[in-house]
Design brief:
It is found in: Cell membrane. By secondary structure, the chain is α/β, with parallel strands linked by helices. It has 19 helices and 12 strands. The protein has helices at 8-18, 20-52, 57-105, 117-158, 160-207, 209-215, 218-270, 276-288, 290-317, 368-378, 401-404, 422-426, 437-442, 445-450, 469-482, 499-512, 525-528, 548-554, 556-563; strands at 338-345, 348-355, 360-365, 386-391, 394-395, 408-411, 420-421, 459-460, 487-491, 517-521, 533-538, 541-546.
């Protein structure tokens, strides 16, 4: 079943809830720090009234000692409060990143549809970081409110009028700050969208750098990225202007509130309603209010940006799965019988096909798009619009995609390699009991290893870019063979190797897969020649099936597809 769609606010609440212990501890310590900060001007006022005015040295030393203890408490509470807040933010960011990666890698798929890899990476990094930062913002927000309430309480004890100025002015200030954060939230969302798109375009261009250089498309690529980058810059500047406006307005309003407190306190002192020490305390508390009120303005901005990022995170997490898990299980021993009945999807039209256990079948599609549609259905990246695909008599719709892929592996043409050694890549999906050497020999990786500085232990860079195209294909094919699945579907595994190497791979592939079902979706004559039979897909339909040599002899369409 598809997940319930979480709102951005739900993501924020869950982020804080998961780290409530650290947030609570941080808020408690930070609140203690703020209360201590608020008490400092109060204690200074007490020192003035009880020690300085009366020239009492003993009282002066006593209250200075109290101040020293308060400052020690301030230092410790700030240090450990900040530690707890940062810890909660980092943990929340990590849990969100893990949740996003799990969703993207879920066997049911769907999260990557319509999104470039760079955009997903941006969501898992920048957006997750902003949402995690909400924990810190909540902690400091609670602490700032504690400081303001302490300030108001002290001022109420000093003068009801002073206390009311703070108690009534602060909610108005917070409400105005919330209103001012709305444009920032909207522009932050647009900023993140444009930044994610720019990252995605950059990643896309880097991945295809060799191709771009080969066709002389560098200028067009640079122009495309420049346009995208300018759009991202414009969105960032709009968000920055909105944040500057919000911060400036809140700072002005905060200054007005502080000035009002100082003015009222000064008039009360002039009238003799409060003492000199109380006036100093009132002015000190008014100045102290700058800190908490600025923090609350920052909290408003962080929450606005966090809500925008949370919406993007929620959108990925809530993407419906492309396929859902069924309730049936595969037989204990998978024979490898595949049956397609009336399968229609994309360009495929009513495809009927029986593949016997242990058969080595070739599939030739006159339209590459139809080959892709067939692979998507066999890999269960999608379910057919109509018809069924069965493995040993069980419909793939009724299986969990993860369980299905332990028996049926589709190795696509554009499979990427990973950072690590050549051998690490080959054994990435291999069961522990399987010796990878036969697969490496069959795919020609042994020959590749001989040309590399450290043989099979040679490091492979990201996506295998340190290897040539033919070397990458052979390592990817060896990885698929070493996975030792009951059914293996391979798509064009030798397009970048020479004819002699291809012939050797064809022979080795047949040998290493003997007795297990194998489907070669390809137009390579060398590979098709070693198959038991070949199915011709023309116009999205099965038009004929026979050994490779027979189809060459009797089908002009087939000859055009495999000999062109």
């Amino acid at each position: 079943m598809s997940p319930t769609y979480p709102s951005g606010r739900d993501v924020l609440r869950e982020s804080v809830r998961e780290q409530r212990r650290d947030v609570g501890l941080g808020a408690l310590l930070a609140s203690g720090h703020q209360v201590g900060e608020a008490l400092v001007p109060v204690l200074i006022g007490v020192v003035i009234d009880r020690a300085v005015t009366g020239s009492d040295t003993g009282a002066l030393l006593l209250w200075l000692g109290v101040l020293a203890v308060v400052y020690v408490g301030l230092a410790l509470s700030f240090r450990f409060g900040a530690w707890a807040g940062d810890r909660s933010a980092v943990r929340s960011e990590h849990s969100l990143r893990i949740a996003l990666v799990r969703r993207v890698l879920h066997p049911g798929g769907g999260a990557e549809d319509g999104r470039l890899p760079g955009a997903l990476a941006n969501t898992a990094t920048e957006d997750a970081k902003r949402v995690g930062g909400v924990n810190t913002a909540v902690m400091y927000g609670i602490a700032s409110l504690a400081g303001i309430l302490t300030c108001a309480f002290v001022l109420l004890r000093t003068s009801v009028l002073l206390g009311l100025v703070v108690l009534l002015g602060t909610p108005v200030l917070l409400w105005l700050g919330h209103l001012l954060s709305k444009p920032l939230e909207t522009r932050s969302e647009a900023e993140q969208e444009r930044a994610a798109h720019a990252s995605a375009v950059a990643a896309d261009l880097v991945a295809g750098l060799r191709i771009l250089k080969g066709i002389g498309g560098e200028s067009a690529a640079i122009d495309r990225y420049r346009t995208t980058s300018r759009d991202s810059l414009a969105a960032t500047l709009k968000a920055a202007r909105a944040q500057a406006l919000q911060s400036g307005m809140v700072l002005s309003l905060t200054g007005g509130l502080i000035a009002l407190v100082a003015l009222v306190g000064g008039r009360l002192a002039a009238e003799g309603s409060i003492s000199l020490g109380q006036l100093v305390s009132a002015v000190g508390l008014a100045l102290f209010l700058v800190g908490p009120l600025e923090v609350l303005a920052w909290v408003n901005a962080e929450l606005a940006q966090g809500r925008a990022s949370a919406g993007r995170v929620a959108e990925v997490l809530a993407t419906p799965h492309a396929v859902t898990a069924g309730e049936l299980s595969l037989p204990t021993e998978v024979r490898g019988a595949l049956r397609l009945t009336g399968v229609s999807h994309g360009g495929l039209r009513e495809v009927d096909l029986d593949i016997a256990p242990g058969e080595l079948l070739g599939v030739v599609a006159t339209d590459p798009a139809h080959a892709t549609d067939l692979l998507r259905c066999l890999a269960r990246r999608t379910d057919p619009d109509t018809g069924t695909v069965e493995l040993d008599g069980v419909s793939l719709r009724d299986l969990d995609p993860a369980e299905m892929r332990t028996a049926l592996l589709v190795a696509e043409h554009d499979a990427d390699l990973f950072e690590g050694t050549v051998r690490d890549n080959v054994t990435a999906a291999a069961p522990e009991h399987v010796d990878p050497e036969p697969a490496m020999t069959a795919a020609g990786v042994a020959q590749v290893a001989q040309t590399l500085p450290e043989g099979e232990d040679t490091a492979v860079s990201e996506r295998g870019r340190s290897l040539s195209g033919g070397q990458r294909q052979r390592v990817a094919l060896a990885r698929a063979l070493a996975a030792d699945r009951a059914v293996l579907v391979v798509h064009d595994p030798t397009t970048a190797v020479d004819a002699v190497t291809e012939a050797g791979i064809a022979t080795g592939l047949r040998e290493v897969r003997k007795g297990r079902t194998t489907v070669l979706v390809t137009t390579s004559p060398a590979l098709l020649a070693v198959t038991d039979r070949v199915v011709l897909l023309d116009g999205g339909r099965v038009t004929d099936t026979a050994p490779h040599a027979d189809l060459i002899a009797r089908h002009e369409t087939y000859r055009a597809a495999v000999l062109a």
